[in-house]
Every structure is written in C-alpha cells, then in structure tokens.
C-alpha cells in the first residue's frame, strides 16, 4: 500500500511528511486485491484532506473486513465461476480452444479491471464517505445477479454433459458414471465447503482405483 | 522428447502462472483452463491441453481463496499435466496427466505457504526508516522469489511428466471419452460444494441450476 501510494503522497504538501505518510500506508493491510483500490483512493483522499493519523488508521482498519468480504463474494464466488462455466459451455459446443480461453479471459478481466479502476476512483472521490458510496453501488446485488448467471450456466453445462446418458436408446453403461456423479454432486451440495478439500482426492482415488482394479488391461 | 525451446517456453508459462496466482496481476492466466490450453498450444495439441486444463479447473472449482484459506495451486501444475497428457496420449495420458496435476497442485499450495512466510522475512516491515528504493527492492525480491518458486515447481513437474513410462499409460483400460467422464466426477463434487456456497439466501439458485440442467438435457438430447 505504501509503495503504491508513494508517488501520490510525494505530491502532497510539496513532499513534506511523505515518509510519515508512507510509513502509515505501509502498515499491515489485507483486503480483496481488486477492491484494495477503494482503500488506496480513500486513504489518499484522507491524507490529502489532512486528517489526523489516528483517524486514518482507524478508517483503514474499518475498511479491511468489508472490502475483503465484498470482493470474495463478487469475484471469487460469482464472477470467476460464471466466466469458467461460460467458457466450458462454449467448449462443449465446439468453440476452438483458444477462443474458449479468450472468452474466459475477456469476460473475467473486463469485470476485474472495471472493478479495480472504479474502486480507486470512488475511494478518492468519497474519502470517508466511501462506505455509503459502496452501499449505493449495491455490489451485493450485482454479485447475486452474477451468481444467478453462474448457476444457470452450471446447470446448462451439467445437462449437456448428462444428456448422452438419456439419449435413446438408453445405454446402461453410461449410468455407471452418471449415478456416482449425481451422488457426488448431492454430497457436495449437502456438506458444502466442509468437503471442498476432497475433490482432488476423489480424482486420485478414481485414477489409482482404475489401475488397481484393471491391472495390465488394454483398452 | 521435446525440443529445448518448447521446454523453456513451458517453464516460462509455469513461472507466469505462479506469478499471476497472487504476486503479479491476478488476470487469471493462472487458471488451469488457461494454462492447460496454452501448454497444449506449445505442444501442438491445444484440444488435449484444454481438456486437461478443464478437468483440473473442475477439480478446483470450489477453491475460494477467502479468509486466508490454504489451497492447492493448480495453475503451474497444469503445465506438466498437459505435457503428460499430450506426450503419453489417449485415456492413459489424460489420467496420468490429471493425476500429476492434482498432486503438483497440492505441492504448489504448500510451497505457496512457505513463500508467504518467506515474504514476511524478506520485507522486514518492522524495520524503521525504509527508503522508497529499499521498499521497492524488497517488493521485487519477493516477486523474484515467487518466480523462482514457480519455476522450480514447474521444472519438477515437467521432469516427472517426462519420466512417466509409456507402458504405464498403455495399462490404462479406458478410452479417452470414458476417461474424461470419469475425471469429471471430482469436478461434480466441487460443483455441488459451489452451489451450496451460493445458497446463503434461499434456494432460488438451486432452482436456476435445475432449470439450466433441464435446458441442457433438452438441448443435448434433441441436437
């Protein structure tokens, strides 16, 4: 934070008290990386307005939690999965690989970069009033809408991948994967994040299990 | 065997993915979907790279980096995974590639924890009177250390991928489509976890998901 703010802080008051200001800005801070710009802009504004150091410190502490949880909700839980599902859905319908990747990166980073730029802007614009500005922006509402898109896309993808098992004539063999898939999905949904760590080990167990059950077999 | 230029490019891709995970940018170049595809392009088989990356992406779908959670690092791991899948080929290559990717991702996550503790020591923030240039130097030192970590991790993975005997892949009994379906299973678990994490306020997201499934099934059956 101090490193990022230094060029701007050096322009305040002809460079007086820059080291004090940079020192304050360099104290421990943690928030979502894309919303840290809100804090960056707001803290710069407070320094420019000549706020007391203790006020700036308390304000900085107050920002950490909300910016972290807002960013987690909007980006990691909403935007990223939505972009992934969109890209995977396009891959399933046959879009060439580099176009799939381009779609993911463009969709994701348009949202990402807009968020970063907007955050610095409103932080500097509103300073201590940035909390109200964030509330008016309704990032929670935006994240709900993005999650809705992600849920729909996830369903579309699941349905498209599941469809061959239902296409006539029904193939019992396809249910050897479809049935465990339904069970695993249900288990993941029931237990939630508590079983998140198991997914890689399901992969390991599946692969090692096939090698053990079919030793020395050829396709 | 692969030519030195391609090998170097793969290492560079792994370094880029490691840096993009946290240190530099976070533009999601580090997602296995992206890294796997790029690795596939470098190896002349983008489709296999995409498939490998997509399967790893599914496995790590529910890895939400919030609250200081310590997670695997699948980005750099997707490079050796794609290499194994492309060079070994078929269902066996894909299975071994994904297996390698999963294990490397777990190792990568551990090295990331180590990296963060190292950053604290390198930055020495408790020191008084750090000049601007010293601050920048330490910052860049941490980024350099992260790049080195990513490079070593990728090199380790590439060496492992090139060491896997072809006979092991030939023992795999499933064709590529069946292998892909099997390796979707962990991603399905992760998808269930993700849907649950969205369910904080009512069940309407589940409704949307089911509507999507119905539409996907209808489209898939009819087309």
Task: Summarize this structure briefly.
The complex is a heterodimer of chains A (219) and B (223). Chain A is an all-alpha fold and 219 residues long.
Determine the structural class of chain A based on helices, strands and strand pairing. Answer: mainly alpha
Mean pLDDT score of chain B: 91
Task: Give the biggest sheet of chain B.
Answer: none
| Count of helical stretches of chain A | 9
Spans of chain B of at least 5 consecutive residues whose pLDDT stays below 50 are: none
Q: Please trace the helix and strand order of chain B, writing H or E for each element.
A: HHHHHHHHH
> How would the global form of chain B be characterised?
flat
Q: Write down the secondary-structure element order of chain A.
A: HHHHHHHHH
Q: What is the radius of gyration of chain A?
A: 24 Å
Measured by residues with Cβ under 8 Å of the partner chain's Cβ, the largest interface is: A-B, 83 and 87 residues
Report the β-strand fraction of chain B as a percent range: under 5%
Mean pLDDT of chain A comes to 89
The percentage helix of chain B is over 70%
Q: What is the overall shape of chain A?
A: elongated
Q: State the total count of DSSP E strands of chain A.
A: 0
Question: What radius of gyration of chain B results from the CA coordinates?
Answer: 20 Å
């Amino acid at each position: 934070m101090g490193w990022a703010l230094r060029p701007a802080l050096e322009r305040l008051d002809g460079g007086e008290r820059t080291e004090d200001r940079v020192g304050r800005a360099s104290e421990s801070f943690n928030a979502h990386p894309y919303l840290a710009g809100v804090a960056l802009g707001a803290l710069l504004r407070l320094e420019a307005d000549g706020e007391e150091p203790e006020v700036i410190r308390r304000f900085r502490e107050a920002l950490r939690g909300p910016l972290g949880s807002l960013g987690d909700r909007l980006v990691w839980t909403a935007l990223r999965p939505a972009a992934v599902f969109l890209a995977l859905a396009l891959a399933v319908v046959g879009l060439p690989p580099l176009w799939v990747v381009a779609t993911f990166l463009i969709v994701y980073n348009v949202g990402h970069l807009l968020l970063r730029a907007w955050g610095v802007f409103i932080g500097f614009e509103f300073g201590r009033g940035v909390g109200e500005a964030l509330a008016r922006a309704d990032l929670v509402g935006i994240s709900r809408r993005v999650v809705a898109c992600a849920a729909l896309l996830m369903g579309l993808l699941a349905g498209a991948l599941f469809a061959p098992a239902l296409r006539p004539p029904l193939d019992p063999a396809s249910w050897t994967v479809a049935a465990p898939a339904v069970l695993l999905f249900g288990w993941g949904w029931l237990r939630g994040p508590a079983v998140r760590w198991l997914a890689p080990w399901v992969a390991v167990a599946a692969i090692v299990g096939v090698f053990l059950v079919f030793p020395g077999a050829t396709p | 065997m692969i030519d030195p230029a391609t090998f170097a490019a793969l290492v560079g891709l792994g370094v880029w993915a490691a840096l993009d995970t946290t240190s530099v940018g976070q533009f999601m170049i580090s997602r296995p979907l992206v890294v796997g595809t790029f690795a596939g392009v470098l190896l002349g088989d983008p489709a296999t790279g995409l498939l490998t990356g997509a399967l790893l992406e599914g496995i790590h779908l529910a890895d939400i980096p919030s609250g200081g959670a310590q997670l695997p690092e699948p980005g750099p791991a997707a490079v050796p995974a794609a290499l194994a899948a492309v060079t070994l080929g078929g269902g066996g290559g894909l299975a071994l590639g994904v297996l390698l990717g999963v294990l490397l991702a777990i190792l990568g996550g551990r090295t990331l924890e180590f990296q963060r503790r190292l950053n604290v020591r390198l930055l020495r923030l408790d020191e008084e009177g750090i000049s601007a240039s010293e601050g920048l130097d330490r910052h860049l030192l941490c980024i350099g250390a992260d790049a080195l970590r990513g490079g070593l991790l990728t090199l380790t993975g590439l060496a492992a991928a090139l060491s896997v005997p072809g006979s092991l892949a030939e023992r795999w009994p499933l064709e590529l489509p069946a292998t892909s379906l099997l390796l979707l299973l962990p991603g399905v678990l992760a998808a269930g976890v993700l849907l649950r994490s969205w369910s904080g306020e009512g069940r309407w997201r589940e409704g949307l998901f089911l509507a999507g499934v119905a539409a996907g099934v209808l489209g898939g059956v009819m087309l």
